[in-house]
## 1
Amino acid sequence: MERASGARHWRGSVKVQSRNGYLSLRWSFRRKRYQMALGNVRDTDLNQRMAQRMAQRIEDDITTGNFDPTLRKYRPNSDKGDGIATWRLMDKFQAWKARSIDDRTLEKYRVLGRRLQDYWGDRGAANITPQDARDFRDRVLRKHMRSERTINETTTLLSACWQWARRNGYELGDRNPWDDMRLRVPPSQGCRPFTLDEMQRILQGFENGSPKVRHYADFVKTWAFLGARTGEMRALRWRHITDESCSQIWIGETLDQSGNVKSTKNQKDSFVDLPEWLSQLLRDRRGEVFDKDDLIFQSPEGNAIEAGNFNNRIWRPLLKELGIKYRRPYNIRHTSISHNAEAGLSEADAAQLYRTSIPMIRRNYRGSITDRPVLKDWLNINETQD
């Protein structure tokens, strides 16, 4: 019996098929049919995701003109031992992580796997030395990434991949080539939170805007109070309201761009008490008859809010109209945390309510509004001149 998944009916579409419990790929390109076994790969959920990524890799190569008709580029190496290629190791690590990370992060893994393949081809992961790793960082990552911080995050990810592989029986030698790779990160001003005046103007802009802008007014008001991550806001459903009066909400899920519901970024949740104005706003939206599984905030078409469309078609044009310097919608979270910190919310309480950690609060939000140390004016120039 055969089952196919991920089929998209255009030229060059690659299908994952299962025969006798083992996975393979098949597709047609330029009037030629291809079929490729994936080796001793059984049909499991994990391997299905890995096979889908291989199918996507082939489709991408077809689209960009980089398809290898000999298929050598795509044939899997031995699962264990030193034969596994660097890109395939990353592919397996990505499949393992898929259930716990969001779509954007998965896309970073996929792009990184492609860069490993472009740079090293099928070179075995066990043969990568620390010098090889530094060369990859300096020749590839520096070319494609804008900041030292992003490069450090990527090499940390690669180090985690190698650690995971060792724990799972891959023979990669005694030393992780990605350790001790961190670059010195120069200080940066960072992205400033919105001031109270800017936030009030933004909320008024949503209230007084066109119908398509006004549609999102409640969404942005709620976001400004909760300071949730984008995916957390998109995932809010009526069942997350804990009582009839809408006085408290639970935040513990995120909705990715593919419509998959997952736990929050770091698997933390929180119950947040709501002020009366927000409780009333939610009661008015809910009405007397509602489905507890419905999303609280939806697009005008009744679907989940698509973050990119909201940013490009609603948020960015409104900020331009208001004369406010553009900062992405996610900055609402930064703004909420920063203003609460200024108002006296402790680091521990902020970490709990915003589902993050105290070190993150200290690094990214503490003193970002006005609560900063001030130099004493010891010169007293005006007094001296008088």
## 2
Amino acid sequence: MKRRVVVTGLGAICSAGRSVQELGDAVAAGRQCFSRIPDPRLQHLRAACAGLISDFVAEEHVHDPQIRELDRFVHYAIAAASQALSHAGLTPRDLNADMGLVFATCSGPMQTIESHYARIIQGKPSLSANKLFAKKYYSGAHALCRTFGIKGPSVTVTTACSASAGAIGIASDMIRCGMVKAALVGGSDTFSSTTIAGFDGLKATAEGMCAPFSKPVGLNLGEGSGFVVLEDASHARARGATVVAEILGYGLSNDAHHCSAPDASGRGQALAMERALAQAGLSREDIPYVNAHGTGTAANDKAETKAIARIFREKAGSLAVSSTKSMIGHCLGAAGCLEILAAIACAERGVYPPTANFRGAREGCSLDYVPDMGRAWQGRPVFMSNNFAFGGNNASVVVRAGSERGAAVEDAADQPDTAVCITACGTVTAAGLGPDALIAAARRGESLAGEKRWGPVTAPAGIVPPIDERSVDRRLDVRGMDRPSRLATLAARCTLTAASYPDRPKDLARVGFYLCIAGPPSGPEEEHITSLLQEDFRISQVQAFPYVVPNSIAGNVSRALSLTGHNTVLCGGKGIGLLGIALAAKAIEAGHVECCMAGAVDELSERIMADEISAGADVNGSAPRGEAATWLMLENAAHAKARHAEVLATIRGSAFASAAGESASWEEHFSRTVKRAITTAGIAPADIGA
């Protein structure tokens, strides 16, 4: 059964206001909600204003003292999520493991990270365990689960500026395929000095207030958080919830083109839009309005205009298109959700959101951008919302707005179950290249963790030895990549080879790619932030900036291997790789792709180890640190059979739960999760052999 996914709760905080009502009022009126950037270190930048939140008091929203110590992006998230849950009338604890969380962010704990590098420069690098955790991109998800008692699967999507749009799609898959009955979904980002300096160094910022598709060219950054509560339609109906919208479909893609610039042809963006329409079961004629990514930069606005024209063809000229960023700025990882909330709020008011500050169309921008003032919504309250990102990660979501209480909404027709199998594996570990090397070392009982000096401390570590990429594929070029990107590319190429998958671009476009990580590449992060702090924010080179975001790894792999298919990046702690495999399997079940590479990569750098040692981690304990990259090729069983692939295993079932929202003991929590996995697999405990 492919279930319908409805929206029953909304929450927002941004420069336009502290609620979805205030956001909708501002956007419908075309009001630009910008203020001057107050940081004196940034006064020499082109960027003079941003969509900033004023007078936010964390203590009014965050009551747990430990969570108050976390980064401000977490506090924004709790404020918006609380609104959404209250609006939905839903208490997550009541649903136990049937309610999940899909959180999203771009820069995440960047204010905390900046403060840490400032202390390092001052010769005060020490970290408490709490501050080390506060630097994690997934700290927000943990805090949300703990605050609201969410006990189901929890994951953080880190695809930069498309993150929360992708999160809504991934959560809808979880519900459609029966993984959960409901999910809290949203994104959050704060204004960051090093982030605005990076955009300014790329000459991507506007000198005044932005004017997407018009003049002046350039973006304004914003900050904020947006959340929705998604539910299985039958669950919402049974509890008499008010439905405010429905998620009809979504699409993901990767440009496989450039670290920061979009493919000028708009092809990659058009793929995401095309896939969203396909899952929604709609044609271009069914969409009267597109909420554009619309950053205001010359490259982005031109490429998106081409992508929209490519998809909507002769209808493009009569299509209403506008940019919410013209009013609240570019809110990065929160942008997708906030912009969908704004469009829902405007649809309820019966007006298209406008593009504010519009002074005539810019060259290459030839559509109807709803200039300056909203106008009457024509036709059905259905819209497409686009968000595109550094690293080439694109997301499009198709939404139907409209309220209904306890309506007799029906699920989609039954569809045959989709068996998902594993047909290949590729690894890069301390044992070397390929799973055979790892298995051989295990059979010999060989430890792969050699002693290594980490500053003042010696500790064992499993470090990947040098590997000649030409031994993997003589066409492969990993020069210039950071370490996790090199490891991930080698392992992914090995996986494609082991799967005997064809190398033609049209075939590779059908391969999904789910990348799981614990954190971003440490090298670019350290280079970008320390150079700014040491040079008083007068940056002379910006090569590192596009690679600070966690999804830069996926972008590097996708470009090297021409992967333009269903593509996302998931961040978490231990076990995120397993959850990524399960979510990739759900993407196959939902029909986004017939095959998908799912796996994980993490490096072990001097910076990472220095932080762990500083925070008091037991690096000489029973579990040595290590680095590796591993991918599995997952396939629809029918697809694998049609191409005569060898089936190594079949995924029978899975279950995931968040311990952060649990009051029970860890043992009880783990036992329930294992039992749930066995139940979903349709087997008995006695059937498990290992």
## 3
Amino acid sequence: MKLTVTKQGTGNGVVTAVPGTITWSGKTGTALFDKDTSVTLTASPAARAWTGCDLNIGLTNCMITMSVDKGVTVEFGTKVKHDFNGDGKADILWRNETTGDVAIWLMDGTKMNGGDFVARGVSADWDIKEIGDFNGDGKSDVLWQNTAGDVYIWLIEGTVIKTGGFAVRGMPDEWQVIALGDFNGDGNDDIMWRNTNSGDIYVWFVNGTERNGGGYVVKSMKSEWTVKATADFNGDGKSDVLWQNTTTGDVAMWLMDGLSMSTGNYVETAVPDNWQIKGIDDFNGDGEADILWQNTTIGDAVIWFMNGLSIANGGYVRKGVPQNWQIKVVGDYNGDGKADILWQDTTTGDIYVYLMDGMNISGEGFVTLGLSNDWQPK
């Protein structure tokens, strides 16, 4: 009896079968089973769709009964950032800077669809450094670092800490976590470090809470070149590096293949200081990350749609946004495969979301009003 599973789409994902083992050749997996064996196929991460199932079980599982040879197909989309429950929609992680409490809001468009405290009273010497998926389950996790240099990872499921552990203890002060990204394409986010004394850039490959190899990306990088983001700008399933020169305003990109730069170039030169990068995500659903800018003087917000090293297109999202409204986070809050924008009014505490379709606002609305400024999204 033969089961053939075909993977389609531009995103990243893993398919597992119980019982049995799937042997992969490129995008096609094949497995042998006895007659009438029931097989459950599980796809991760989020943003997937099965066809050819006898029974669909939730978002992730496809059940088939092997009475004859069968073929099923799973199509993967791009992994959703800040998705803590694996429903294909970005959520919001909050920390109260006075009490240390940490909470997650599970989002559905502009509405909160559940949420809870994750932890209370986390000590002020612990700082949330990054959010990413370290175990490849399609659910975002949280990376912490304290003033002693200890790095700790929470593996999250919904609003619950499933497990956690130290990635390292006593990291020297000059080594700073600057970004996360999946540099080797294994579905797990990796940790990028920078040595503030030498300029060396180093990546740790991560599996759950444990380091799983790594290496230098570059040594002795000049201090004026800062890593603004890591994201997949060319759609190959591996993170690339976006740089900006703090002296000249030049923006450059390295397209990465693991720890090596496959190619790189300037994206733009001499960007004025009042234009700030506010978010990196895929705003038009083409599988390639884009760049959200805001002019901090006049409030204009602009998106560059990227195609590798080149700006393929772009335009204004909105002009003249009042300065009390700040872009806090970007993420796909309605699960349409396109990133949206979360704003916070620093005067009133109101939280507002733009649902985006490219550079167009397809929907918008308040998430909540009058939230205390002690609560900050991460």
## 4
Amino acid sequence: VNFNGCKWVTDKGLAGLARNKRLREVRIRGTSCTDKSLYSLAQFCPALEWIAHADFSGRPKFSDQALKCLRDACIQRVIC
């Protein structure tokens, strides 16, 4: 699923999508998602293989703790 640049995509919306345990790829650059979204993905999407979240503004969007939680929860992953 590609939500890049969709500022109206929020934690609540992504949490609903995350309940699809077969979700394998999500792109959330330029959305309104926060750490809560990463925790939802970590909790409900163990098969997640790819998440694109990088913010090139120079300000980290997600905490290291949330990224580590997602990394540790997913079986196969590429996080960029």
